[in-house]
Protein backbone atom coordinates (compact mmCIF):
# COMPACT_ATOMS: atom_id res chain seq x y z
CA UNK A 1 0.00 0.00 0.00
CA UNK A 2 1.33 3.43 -0.96
CA UNK A 3 0.44 6.51 1.09
CA UNK A 4 0.31 9.82 -0.76
CA UNK A 5 -0.17 13.16 1.01
CA UNK A 6 -1.51 16.13 -0.97
CA UNK A 7 -1.76 19.75 0.16
CA UNK A 8 -5.23 21.29 0.33
CA UNK A 9 -6.76 24.69 1.03
CA UNK A 10 -9.81 23.15 2.73
CA UNK A 11 -11.16 20.03 4.43
CA UNK A 12 -13.23 18.70 1.50
CA UNK A 13 -10.98 15.73 0.73
CA UNK A 14 -10.80 14.74 -2.94
CA UNK A 15 -13.30 17.53 -3.77
CA UNK A 16 -10.97 20.10 -2.22
CA UNK A 17 -8.79 22.75 -3.77
CA UNK A 18 -5.06 22.08 -4.04
CA UNK A 19 -2.73 24.35 -2.14
CA UNK A 20 0.10 25.79 -4.16
CA UNK A 21 2.54 25.73 -1.23
CA UNK A 22 2.63 22.98 1.32
CA UNK A 23 3.81 25.10 4.26
CA UNK A 24 0.79 27.36 4.17
CA UNK A 25 -1.95 24.85 3.41
CA UNK A 26 -4.75 24.43 5.93
CA UNK A 27 -5.16 20.67 5.39
CA UNK A 28 -3.53 17.54 4.04
CA UNK A 29 -5.28 14.69 2.26
CA UNK A 30 -3.78 11.27 2.91
CA UNK A 31 -4.69 8.81 0.14
CA UNK A 32 -3.93 5.11 0.44
CA UNK A 33 -3.34 3.47 -2.93
CA UNK A 34 -3.32 -0.28 -3.54
CA UNK A 35 -0.94 -2.18 -5.84
CA UNK A 36 -3.36 -1.71 -8.76
CA UNK A 37 -3.28 2.07 -8.38
CA UNK A 38 -6.77 2.26 -6.88
CA UNK A 39 -7.66 4.61 -4.03
CA UNK A 40 -8.72 2.45 -1.08
CA UNK A 41 -8.98 5.13 1.62
CA UNK A 42 -8.66 8.86 2.17
CA UNK A 43 -8.29 10.89 5.33
CA UNK A 44 -8.21 14.65 5.84
CA UNK A 45 -5.83 16.04 8.45
CA UNK A 46 -5.67 19.67 9.57
CA UNK A 47 -2.21 21.18 9.26
CA UNK A 48 -1.22 21.82 12.90
CA UNK A 49 1.45 24.25 11.70
CA UNK A 50 -0.55 26.22 9.11
CA UNK A 51 -0.19 29.53 10.95
CA UNK A 52 3.42 29.17 12.04
CA UNK A 53 6.05 26.47 11.73
CA UNK A 54 9.70 25.90 12.40
CA UNK A 55 11.88 24.12 9.83
CA UNK A 56 11.18 20.40 9.78
CA UNK A 57 7.89 20.42 11.74
CA UNK A 58 5.61 19.85 8.75
CA UNK A 59 7.81 17.16 7.16
CA UNK A 60 7.94 15.42 10.55
CA UNK A 61 4.12 15.59 10.82
CA UNK A 62 3.70 14.15 7.31
CA UNK A 63 6.24 11.44 8.16
CA UNK A 64 4.13 10.58 11.23
CA UNK A 65 1.20 9.91 8.86
CA UNK A 66 3.27 7.17 7.21
CA UNK A 67 3.57 9.00 3.89
CA UNK A 68 5.60 7.60 1.02
CA UNK A 69 5.01 10.61 -1.25
CA UNK A 70 4.02 14.25 -0.71
CA UNK A 71 2.51 16.24 -3.59
CA UNK A 72 2.35 20.03 -3.40
CA UNK A 73 2.07 22.93 -5.78
CA UNK A 74 5.46 24.13 -4.61
CA UNK A 75 8.02 23.61 -1.87
CA UNK A 76 11.21 25.22 -0.64
CA UNK A 77 14.63 23.57 -0.72
CA UNK A 78 14.88 23.07 3.06
CA UNK A 79 11.56 21.21 3.20
CA UNK A 80 12.63 19.04 0.26
CA UNK A 81 15.80 18.14 2.19
CA UNK A 82 13.76 17.23 5.29
CA UNK A 83 11.50 14.95 3.27
CA UNK A 84 14.55 13.33 1.69
CA UNK A 85 15.92 12.56 5.16
CA UNK A 86 12.63 10.83 6.01
CA UNK A 87 12.68 8.86 2.76
CA UNK A 88 9.56 10.60 1.45
CA UNK A 89 9.41 11.35 -2.27
CA UNK A 90 8.53 14.98 -3.10
CA UNK A 91 6.50 15.85 -6.18
CA UNK A 92 5.63 19.42 -7.09
CA UNK A 93 3.10 20.60 -9.59
CA UNK A 94 -0.62 20.70 -9.11
CA UNK A 95 -3.97 20.81 -10.82
CA UNK A 96 -6.82 22.95 -9.43
CA UNK A 97 -8.40 20.18 -7.34
CA UNK A 98 -6.99 17.52 -5.05
CA UNK A 99 -8.69 14.76 -7.08
CA UNK A 100 -7.32 16.07 -10.40
CA UNK A 101 -3.81 16.29 -8.93
CA UNK A 102 -3.97 12.78 -7.46
CA UNK A 103 -5.29 11.38 -10.76
CA UNK A 104 -2.52 13.17 -12.68
CA UNK A 105 0.12 11.84 -10.26
CA UNK A 106 -1.19 8.28 -10.53
CA UNK A 107 -1.17 8.61 -14.34
CA UNK A 108 2.46 9.82 -14.28
CA UNK A 109 1.55 13.32 -15.51
CA UNK A 110 2.70 15.05 -12.30
CA UNK A 111 6.22 14.19 -11.20
CA UNK A 112 9.55 15.76 -10.38
CA UNK A 113 10.46 18.70 -8.18
CA UNK A 114 10.58 22.43 -8.82
CA UNK A 115 11.80 24.40 -5.80
CA UNK A 116 9.94 27.52 -4.67
CA UNK A 117 12.02 30.64 -4.24
CA UNK A 118 9.46 32.22 -1.85
CA UNK A 119 9.53 35.48 -3.83
CA UNK A 120 5.88 35.34 -4.94
From TrEMBL:
Record keywords: NADP included?
no
Q: Which domain of life is it from?
A: Bacteria
- Species of origin: Thiorhodococcus drewsii AZ1
Q: Which residues form the Dinitrogenase iron-molybdenum cofactor biosynthesis domain?
A: 17-106
What lineage, starting at the top, does this entry show? Bacteria, Pseudomonadati, Pseudomonadota, Gammaproteobacteria, Chromatiales
* Entry-linked Pfam families: Nitro_FeMo-Co
What InterPro entries does this protein's entry cite? Di-Nase_FeMo-co_biosynth (IPR003731), DiNase_FeMo-co_biosyn_sf (IPR036105), MTH1175_dom (IPR033913)
Q: Which UniProt keywords apply?
A: Nitrogen fixation
What is the name of the protein in this document? Dinitrogenase iron-molybdenum cofactor biosynthesis protein
Amino acid sequence: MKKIVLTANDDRGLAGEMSMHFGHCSHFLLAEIDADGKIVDTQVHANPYAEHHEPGQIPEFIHSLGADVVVAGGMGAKAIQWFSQFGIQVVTGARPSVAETLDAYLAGAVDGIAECDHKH
